[in-house]
Amino acid sequence: MKWLKGITLLLIANVLIFVTLSFSFNLLVNFILPAFGIDVRGVVDQQDLVWAMVFGFGGAFISLAFSKQLARSMLDCYQITQPRSHAEQVVYGAVQEIAQRLRIQMPEVWVYDSPDPNAFATGPSKNNSMVAVSTGLLNNLNEQEVRAVLAHEMGHVFNGDMFTTTVLAGLMNTFVYLISRWVYRHLAERNEALALGVYFFLQFVLSILAMIPISWFSRRREFAADAFSAKVYGKEAMISALRAIDRWMSRTQFEYSVQDPLATMKISGKTSGFLGLFATHPPIEERIAALQRL
């Protein structure tokens, strides 16, 4: 029944967000903007706003509700329920210890097969989450570094980063649908075929641009999760873990793709130049510098 409770809470949150934005929209369009001599009544259709919010927030929250199942389906992984080796005991024990400290429900603990040293956390709420580590993390980091990485992921869980990222994604999706629909309605009066083509083009371009603020927010949350890890096990452990991951990536010339469906959840990634705007994680050297300033 816990999954049903989680979905119910997400639906309630979705409805509350919808009501809040709808009320704010009416207040802004009908009262605040006219008071400053700006009249957009009739320009922005409330029905378009409603559908934009339904599609924007609906898709985002459905993805969050099934995020654990989606992550597991993409990976070759197994769950630790009773540790059968020392490495499994380190992983399971660290997650259990931190969950008890935070007084939250123990997340599911998974190990997935991947050569890169990485980890991620996901789930609809801090009491309904999962933490996963790669075999590469266990093979390339020492015990204290592994614990530091797990504390980082538990920081994401406790801070509710998955939920807040979903809200931001829903808001960005809403703007994408709303702007595309607004342009379509005005062009359709003259040329239906052109309007449809522009509509899909805008959907594509705006969806890409919407990833910029979402990725920026994700990078900010990484610093917070690093700071959480520093509080739990000390900043030197997290710095050491980041350096070990960086050494592995430099040695193997491993590249993280911005198209990785789990990129926003993993602990590290390297992207530079223009693609840095779409990076979900800050450069490791910046994270180390931030930790050293603590």
Between the first and last Cα atoms, what is the distance in angstroms? 42 Å
Write the element-wise H/E pattern from the N-terminal end onward: HHHEHEEEHHHHHH
Strand line-up of the largest beta sheet: 1-2-4-3
Low-pLDDT parts are: 257-261
Relative strand content: 5-15%
What is the number of helical segments per DSSP (H or I, 4+ residues)? 10
Q: Pairing-aware structural class of the strands and helices?
A: alpha+beta
Work out the helicity level. 55-70%
Coarse shape:
elongated
Q: What does the average pLDDT come to? A: 82
Radius of gyration: 22 Å
How many β-strand stretches? 4
Instruction: Give the assembly state of these chains.
Output: single chain
Report on the structure:
- The protein has 294 residues and is of the alpha+beta class.
- 67% of the residues lie in helices and 7% in strands.
- The chain contains ten helices and four strands.
- It has a four-stranded mixed β-sheet with strand order 1-2-4-3, sandwiched between helices.
- A hairpin with a 2-residue loop joins strand 3 (119-125) and strand 4 (128-134).
- The longest helix has 42 residues, at 192-233.
- Residues 257-261 have low confidence and may be disordered.
